[in-house]
Amino acid sequence: MDRENYMDKIDEAFISIQRGEIYHVLISNTEKMIIEKALERSFGNQILAAKILGINRNTIRTKIRKLNIDVHRFKI
Questions:
Q1: What CATH number does residue 43 fall under?
Q2: Which residue range is the domain that position 39 belongs to?
Q3: pLDDT band at residue 1, thresholds of 50, 70 and 90?
Protein backbone atom coordinates (compact mmCIF):
# COMPACT_ATOMS: atom_id res chain seq x y z
CA MET A 1 0.00 0.00 0.00
CA ASP A 2 1.46 3.35 -0.95
CA ARG A 3 1.57 6.37 1.34
CA GLU A 4 -1.40 8.11 -0.30
CA ASN A 5 -3.67 5.07 0.07
CA TYR A 6 -2.49 4.61 3.65
CA MET A 7 -3.30 8.22 4.48
CA ASP A 8 -6.76 7.76 2.91
CA LYS A 9 -7.30 4.79 5.23
CA ILE A 10 -6.32 6.93 8.21
CA ASP A 11 -8.80 9.61 7.13
CA GLU A 12 -11.51 6.95 6.82
CA ALA A 13 -10.69 5.74 10.32
CA PHE A 14 -11.25 9.19 11.77
CA ILE A 15 -14.70 9.20 10.20
CA SER A 16 -15.80 5.62 10.86
CA ILE A 17 -14.13 4.54 14.12
CA GLN A 18 -15.63 5.51 17.43
CA ARG A 19 -13.88 8.33 19.22
CA GLY A 20 -11.30 7.07 21.70
CA GLU A 21 -10.54 3.94 19.67
CA ILE A 22 -8.81 5.44 16.63
CA TYR A 23 -5.24 5.05 17.90
CA HIS A 24 -5.72 1.43 18.96
CA VAL A 25 -7.39 0.41 15.70
CA LEU A 26 -4.80 2.13 13.50
CA ILE A 27 -1.85 0.70 15.44
CA SER A 28 -3.34 -2.82 15.37
CA ASN A 29 -4.01 -2.64 11.64
CA THR A 30 -0.54 -1.28 10.90
CA GLU A 31 1.10 -3.89 13.10
CA LYS A 32 -0.87 -6.64 11.37
CA MET A 33 0.22 -5.43 7.91
CA ILE A 34 3.88 -5.32 8.97
CA ILE A 35 3.81 -8.80 10.50
CA GLU A 36 1.99 -10.24 7.49
CA LYS A 37 4.62 -8.72 5.14
CA ALA A 38 7.42 -10.29 7.22
CA LEU A 39 5.61 -13.65 7.18
CA GLU A 40 5.17 -13.35 3.42
CA ARG A 41 8.90 -12.72 2.94
CA SER A 42 9.81 -15.59 5.26
CA PHE A 43 7.26 -17.99 3.68
CA GLY A 44 5.47 -18.33 7.02
CA ASN A 45 8.58 -18.99 9.09
CA GLN A 46 7.81 -17.17 12.33
CA ILE A 47 11.37 -17.24 13.67
CA LEU A 48 12.74 -15.73 10.47
CA ALA A 49 9.90 -13.16 10.37
CA ALA A 50 10.77 -12.16 13.95
CA LYS A 51 14.42 -11.73 12.96
CA ILE A 52 13.41 -9.60 9.95
CA LEU A 53 11.40 -7.35 12.26
CA GLY A 54 13.98 -7.35 15.05
CA ILE A 55 11.60 -8.75 17.66
CA ASN A 56 11.62 -11.87 19.82
CA ARG A 57 10.04 -15.05 18.42
CA ASN A 58 7.68 -15.25 21.40
CA THR A 59 6.58 -11.67 20.75
CA ILE A 60 5.68 -12.36 17.13
CA ARG A 61 3.80 -15.51 18.12
CA THR A 62 1.81 -13.58 20.70
CA LYS A 63 0.99 -10.86 18.18
CA ILE A 64 0.01 -13.44 15.53
CA ARG A 65 -2.52 -14.91 17.95
CA LYS A 66 -3.75 -11.50 19.15
CA LEU A 67 -4.20 -10.19 15.60
CA ASN A 68 -5.74 -13.44 14.28
CA ILE A 69 -3.16 -13.88 11.52
CA ASP A 70 -3.41 -17.14 9.57
CA VAL A 71 0.26 -18.16 9.24
CA HIS A 72 -0.57 -21.13 7.02
CA ARG A 73 -1.50 -18.92 4.09
CA PHE A 74 2.14 -17.77 3.84
CA LYS A 75 3.69 -21.22 3.81
CA ILE A 76 4.81 -22.74 0.53
A1: 1.10.10.60
A2: 3-74
A3: low
